[in-house]
Design goal:
There is one protein chain. By secondary structure, the chain is α/β, with parallel strands linked by helices. It has a domain at 126-213 and 238-387: Rossmann fold. It is 41% helix and 17% strand. The protein contains 14 helices and 14 strands. The chain has helices at 13-19, 21-45, 51-55, 133-136, 146-154, 168-179, 196-208, 213-220, 222-231, 266-288, 301-305, 325-334, 346-354, 369-387; strands at residues 66-69, 73-76, 81-87, 95-96, 104-110, 127-131, 158-162, 186-192, 236-237, 242-246, 252-256, 292-298, 309-310, 341-344. The strands form 5 sheets. A 5-stranded parallel β-sheet has the order 7-6-8-12-14, sandwiched between helices. The longest helix has 25 residues, at 21-45. The protein is globular.
Length: 389
Amino acid sequence: MTPKASPPEPIAWPARILKSATTRRILLVVASFVFALSLIEFPALINVLDYRVILGENFAWWPANNRNDPELIHIRRPYVHFSGETRGGGITAGFRIPQSDMTFYRWDVKCDHNGFRNDVDLKSADIIVIGDSMVEGLTVPTPELTTSLLAQLQGKVVANLGQSAYGPQQELVVLKRYGLPLHPRNIIWMFSESTDLNDVVYYDRVMNNPPDFLHAFWARSFTKIAWVELFHGSKKDGAVRAGVFEASDSKPVTAYFITRSLPLTKQNLGAIDETAQIIAEAHRLSAAQGARLIFVFVPDKFRILHEFCKFSEESECRYWPMNDMPVRVEKAVRSISPDIGYLDLTSKLVDTARTGVLPYYSDDEHWSPVGHKVAAEAINSYLLSMENQ
């Protein structure tokens, strides 16, 4: 009797799926996609390309011109020269505004051997100006910068030691590493109300938890930028951050505000105390070299313009309170030493706005050339008054 043939063993369902022509095609597509994405991401992985520069929002080009620094986090590359143009300021990163309200920006920035915005390498300077993007002024032509105008008014050499996104801790490093070796007589320390307290907190967090390789790669990766653009690209109507400013030519200008005016928090107050400690150290180092430190308070845009703007019902700006940061910062700095100079630019900028002239860009938080001129003239007057004492 012929034995019965055993029935074929059933193929397990994973094997059946893998043998499917449809599945193979899907896997091929997925593998091709992963391979293509790997090719795209490889330049970012080895840090030769930053997709924020290509695909990011306006003014996202600056990371490509920086190098990492263990104390400063970042600093411009030596002798870097970058230029370009764009339409729309910082408000367009998170809000929709009409094309007609967008400023057209052009920049042509040249840096010295230390990565600061000076046309020539300086071995000495009568005055150094330390600060963040308000000092560096990337979208302002070099002749119209505060430092350039101050040099003309004083008839002296002025070094621009401003660096975008710096806070007080980084500025102290700049003073030690780059400022004091220039042997200045006067050190102008510009404190930005809109960002510096947050920068204090950010710097401490980064120093306590330095970003690892994967975090740094993710920040510049194509995948992250594409994800943000595709799935988080919806923006609010800019009207919620707007007010109408009556310009001197009787033509209303819509002014947009990025930085919200809020009551000071416990964290803010702690940052003021930490800033005071930094300024005390800066004063000690400056005095030891025979230089005078002058602290300059740079108010934010809303503090200057709010009383000259009309806010619609949909604008949340009409409910923003005015905090007492200028008073607290001045008290903290003056308590260190009477030898520290103190200048608050608020009144000069308010006077300019009162005449119907905007000292800030309408769609950005930074000074326009008008603001730089106001700052230069105010600092010059302060320095002259000191000489007459």
